[in-house]
From TrEMBL:
<dbReference type="InterPro" id="IPR008918">
    <property type="entry name" value="HhH2"/>
</dbReference>
<feature type="domain" description="5'-3' exonuclease">
    <location>
        <begin position="4"/>
        <end position="267"/>
    </location>
</feature>
<keyword id="KW-0238">DNA-binding</keyword>
<dbReference type="GO" id="GO:0033567">
    <property type="term" value="P:DNA replication, Okazaki fragment processing"/>
</dbReference>
<keyword id="KW-0540">Nuclease</keyword>
<dbReference type="InterPro" id="IPR002421">
    <property type="entry name" value="5-3_exonuclease"/>
</dbReference>
<dbReference type="GO" id="GO:0017108">
    <property type="term" value="F:5'-flap endonuclease activity"/>
</dbReference>
<dbReference type="InterPro" id="IPR038969">
    <property type="entry name" value="FEN"/>
</dbReference>
<dbReference type="GO" id="GO:0003677">
    <property type="term" value="F:DNA binding"/>
</dbReference>
<dbReference type="InterPro" id="IPR029060">
    <property type="entry name" value="PIN-like_dom_sf"/>
</dbReference>
<dbReference type="GO" id="GO:0008409">
    <property type="term" value="F:5'-3' exonuclease activity"/>
</dbReference>
<comment type="function">
    <text>5'-3' exonuclease acting preferentially on double-stranded DNA.</text>
</comment>
<keyword id="KW-0378">Hydrolase</keyword>
<dbReference type="Pfam" id="PF02739">
    <property type="entry name" value="5_3_exonuc_N"/>
</dbReference>
<dbReference type="InterPro" id="IPR036279">
    <property type="entry name" value="5-3_exonuclease_C_sf"/>
</dbReference>
<protein>
    <recommendedName>
        <fullName>5'-3' exonuclease</fullName>
    </recommendedName>
</protein>
<dbReference type="InterPro" id="IPR020045">
    <property type="entry name" value="DNA_polI_H3TH"/>
</dbReference>
């Protein structure tokens, strides 16, 4: 018997992908006030496709909360080179949260933590409860979460094929195990996150070191294995590398309270209300059958209650 599958969506990346990917179109979606809702359109379309596939026990979305997080407390330059969020995208971030709430799709975020940490925590709990997990994200940082029960679904561009990232994929691409990705990034740095690596250290050398010693902590414990000049270099960068390891590792123990792993029950009545409010007419036709079905059930339930009350 196949295990039930939970899908976790990287909300931040889906929003940005929707915003930038749809700006090139001739007609860009706007709401009744004439404000852009292009990212919301793409977000809703992607979530609806997952709902329609009927492949998942439930769908969970994770978000970042602002720029401040615990990683910046350790390393203030973390992600300092990233572009500011476009002003037109900021209100859309709130709108997708309203959409998820209206459709009864669980979503999670927490002050001081990034969406990856929320994802890592939910992922660990889901596997512990016996679910298989698919993570929809284009962020290669999430590859460290891959395991026997966890895969990443990535699509770098609209024209590109969707790629399912497994343990074997990570080993082929990076030459290490998924759990060793933070160690590799600790040594080599990560330009996209403005994390500086060990100066002059090459990729192949870093991979050899991690393959031999398993992690950066063991490299420093066995520093006597290296020639004197490399020992000196490693000693000089030890504090920096261990700090890198802290900030590149995705947390899996964030206190999120109770996570809703119940089977997904989309509220099509409130979903329809959201679509009509935002004039997203392209979707109203798609969910109309489900909307009418739930409406009939609700009306029947209300009539039965009235009969019971009038008879008592």
């Amino acid at each position: 018997m196949d295990k039930k599958k939970v899908v976790i969506i990287d909300g931040y990346h889906l929003l940005h992908k929707g915003y930038y990917g749809s700006l090139k179109r001739k007609k860009v979606a706007v709401n009744r006030e004439g404000k852009l809702i292009n990212a919301v359109y793409v977000f809703v379309a992607n979530i609806y496709q997952l709902i329609k596939s009927n492949s998942y026990h439930t769908i969970i979305v994770t978000f970042d909360v602002g720029k401040e997080c615990w990683r910046r407390e350790i390393y203030p330059e973390y992600k300092a080179t990233r572009k500011e969020t476009p002003p037109e995208l900021i209100p859309q971030m709130q709108l997708v949260r309203e959409f998820l709430t209206s459709a009864n799709i669980p979503w999670y975020e927490k002050e001081r933590y990034e969406g990856d940490d929320i994802m890592g925590t939910i992922c660990r709990l889901a596997v512990k409860l016996g679910y298989d997990v698919e993570i929809f994200s284009n962020d290669k940082d999430t590859y460290q979460l891959v395991s026997e029960n966890v895969t990443i679904v990535s699509q770098q561009s609209k024209k590109a094929e969707k790629e399912v990232v497994t343990e074997d994929t990570v080993t082929e691409k990076f030459g290490c195990l998924p759990c060793q990705i933070p160690d590799i990034k600790s040594l080599l740095g990560d330009q996209s996150d403005n994390i500086k690596g060990v100066k002059g250290l090459h990729y192949k050398t870093a991979i050899k070191m991690i393959k031999k010693y398993g992690n950066v902590e063991n490299i420093f414990q066995n520093i006597a294995d290296f020639p004197p000049d490399k020992q000196k270099k490693l000693e000089e960068c030890k504090e920096h590398v261990l700090k890198n390891k802290k900030i590149t590792r995705i947390l899996s123990n964030v206190d999120l309270g109770r996570i809703d792993f119940r089977p997904l029950r989309v509220n099509y009545i409130r979903f329809m209300g959201f679509l009509k409010r935002e004039r997203m007419w392209a979707f109203t036709k798609m969910i109309n059958d489900k909307f009418e079905e739930q409406q009939k059930i609700m009306i029947t339930h209300r009539e039965n209650l009235q009969k019971e009350n009038s008879g008592s």
